[in-house]
Design goal:
about 575 residues; 3 domains; two-stranded antiparallel sheet; Clc chloride channel; mainly alpha; CBS-domain
Length: about 575
């Protein structure tokens, strides 16, 4: 490419970057483009998955896999076994390359300032399509959100957006994708606010809502959303009905926490088994195929099964069996190595749980007259909150599905109860729980990456005063007269840190002890900072040590690398926290 076209391209990007960074209308324009692209990806992925189901399982084009009456066992074992083999090959290839774990949108916004790999986004989308296409019990929504967010991140990085603007744009990509999946712009927008960005503010409202609307319009223009939820109207709710739905929310919390703990248990079981990593998805796929011979409703996300089961009067024992089978299929699919989401699966299982709760409530208190449809909606929302998170997200999904404001109030109360119960007893959604199992400690997508970036290595004085611990106090006083330094780090014969000495305290010693080793005055010999610690950890160390200054040492060799003062670390932490808060609220 010649220099002239490159120069013109750079000029265009520079002008566009200036518009987006300085103009809120420009940010909305980029968000609309990102949302529309996310909607187009949702349509393409849905069509590919549906075609795979038709091709593999021989179902009709207008039929959903999980709604099929019967699946041939040989087909299920072959499809899920081969799908597991492909997923195992992906994992083997990734490990052979030494590739790091793929970052999802929540982790990217919490720890990496919104930076996502577009290549990883395409890889996750492909893995999700393979998993869902062969019939594994996972939904496509994780792939939808990943590719939408990755497109947004790549766009924002190309435009050199500020950290908070990039995080917001990643939320726009996820909002467009989820809104397109359910034809529900408010659901998509609050999915971004609650789960991807971690906060709602005036600064991010306009672009996220615009992206959600754009994603919805794009998918409608291209053929319709894949996960539209419909149900009969709901009778008006009384105070007693609200209390009953809150009880359902608590039941959903118990089921959700049990499912997440079971997922961790199954994952540890696969990892501890003698099976090589590439073989685990094959075994998991065969297990799901075995469950599919009992009922095809365990296959895929479960949208067809939800449409099938909604109008039916299903006995309580059958509902319990379907709930256990679907949850087990989902957990085994993910634990063994298939990739996908639990968003729609949690809605499906929650609907079954709601139907079961309505049956039990009718048998225990016939006079309560609790509407089964209200229980169905509340079960969907509350189990979705327990597993996925986002009480407002799930409430708006019910509102946009039912069009009934009266039921939305009861569902919101139940969702809040479910969310509070999960946070009090467990503390994580499924996404953050899986990150916790990898060693991360984030509880939401709120930006804590700046804390990790503000390390001791960045803050410390790299040229601290150092002196030999074996020298005499008189030599120390001669080397460091009053006013030359406040504290000096001592090192032993091997160059390892041996404590701190206060220069004023050393000069205050009587002259008759000046021949003693300076090491006699050393303090905090066993306390030091390491370069990798962040400012928050450093301040905790200062408080525990009751010292205004600490040495920074190499954790392996013990050599003194620098020193850090408490006042400076506190000031820099406050500055960065203030900057992050201004970015969130648009100040």
């Amino acid at each position: 490419m010649s220099a002239a076209p490159m120069s013109a391209k750079n000029a265009v990007f520079s002008a566009l970057r200036g518009i987006v960074r300085s103009n809120s209308i420009g940010q909305v324009g980029i968000a609309i483009g990102v949302g529309a692209l996310a909607g187009a990806c949702v349509t393409a992925m849905t069509r590919i998955a549906e075609f795979a189901h038709v091709l593999i399982y021989g179902i009709a084009f207008d039929e959903r896999l999980s709604a099929h009456t019967h699946i041939r066992p040989l087909t299920a074992f072959a499809a899920l076994g081969l799908g597991g083999l492909v997923m195992g090959a992906f994992e083997h290839w990734r490990r052979a390359r030494g590739a790091p774990e793929i970052v999802d949108p929540i982790e990217a916004n919490a720890l990496r300032g919104g930076r996502l790999s577009l290549r990883d986004g395409v890889l996750v989308a492909a893995q999700t399509l393979i998993s869902n296409g062969c019939g594994a019990s996972v939904g496509l929504e994780a792939g939808f959100a990943q590719i939408g967010s990755a497109i947004a991140s790549r766009t924002g990085v190309s435009l050199d957006l500020r950290r908070q603007d990039l995080r917001t744009l990643v939320g726009c990509g996820a909002a467009g994708a989820i809104a397109a999946a359910f034809a529900a712009p408010l659901t998509g927008a609050f999915y971004a606010f609650e789960l991807i960005i971690g906060v709602y503010s005036l600064a991010n409202a306009a672009p996220v809502l615009a992206a959600a609307v754009a994603g919805t319009l794009a998918v409608r223009a291209l053929g319709g959303a894949p996960y539209v939820v419909t149900a009969p109207p709901v009778a008006p709710l009384t105070v007693a009905h609200h209390l009953a739905l809150i009880a359902l929310g608590l039941v959903s919390a118990v089921v959700g926490v049990a499912a997440m703990r079971a997922a961790a248990w199954f994952e540890r079981g696969f990892q501890a088994s003698p099976l090589p990593p590439w073989a685990r998805p094959i075994i998991g796929g065969c297990f799901v195929a075995m469950l599919a011979t009992l009922t095809p409703q365990v296959l895929g996300a479960g949208h067809g099964a939800l449409d099938l089961d909604l109008p039916l009067g299903i006995p309580a024992a059958t509902l319990v069996g379907l709930i256990l089978l679907k949850l087990t299929a989902c957990i085994v699919s993910l634990a063994s190595g298939f990739r996908g989401g639990l968003f729609f699966a949690s809605l499906f299982v929650g609907a079954l749980l709601g139907k079961l709760f309505a049956l039990i409530a009718a048998s225990l208190s016939p006079t309560l007259a609790l509407d089964p449809t209200a229980c169905l909606f509340a079960g969907m929302a509350t189990l979705g909150v327990a597993i996925v998170g986002g009480p407002l997200t799930m409430t708006f999904l019910v509102l946009e599905s039912s069009g009934d404001l009266s039921v939305a109030g009861g569902v919101l109360a139940a969702s809040i109860a479910s969310s509070l119960a999960v946070r009090a007893t467990f503390g994580y959604s499924f996404s953050t729980w899986r990150l916790h199992l990898r060693g991360e400690t984030i509880l939401s997508a709120q930006d804590v990456g700046w804390i990790r970036d503000l390390t001791v290595a960045r803050l410390m004085d790299h040229n601290p005063p150092v002196f030999a611990a074996s020298a005499q106090l008189s030599e120390f006083c001669a080397a460091y007269p009053l006013g030359s330094a406040n504290f000096v780090a001592l090192t032993d014969e091997d160059g390892r840190y041996a404590g701190l000495v206060s220069v004023p305290e050393a000069h205050a010693q009587p002259k008759d002890v000046r021949a003693a080793p300076v090491a006699d005055l050393a303090k905090l010999a066993g306390v030091s900072l390491t370069p990798e610690e962040n400012a928050r950890q450093a301040m905790a160390q200062f408080e525990a040590a009751h010292s205004e200054l600490l040495a920074v040492t190499d954790p392996e060799t013990g050599a003194v690398l620098g020193q850090l003062g408490e006042a400076y670390a506190t000031r820099r932490y406050a500055q960065e926290a203030d900057r992050a808060a201004k970015g969130v609220f648009g100040a």
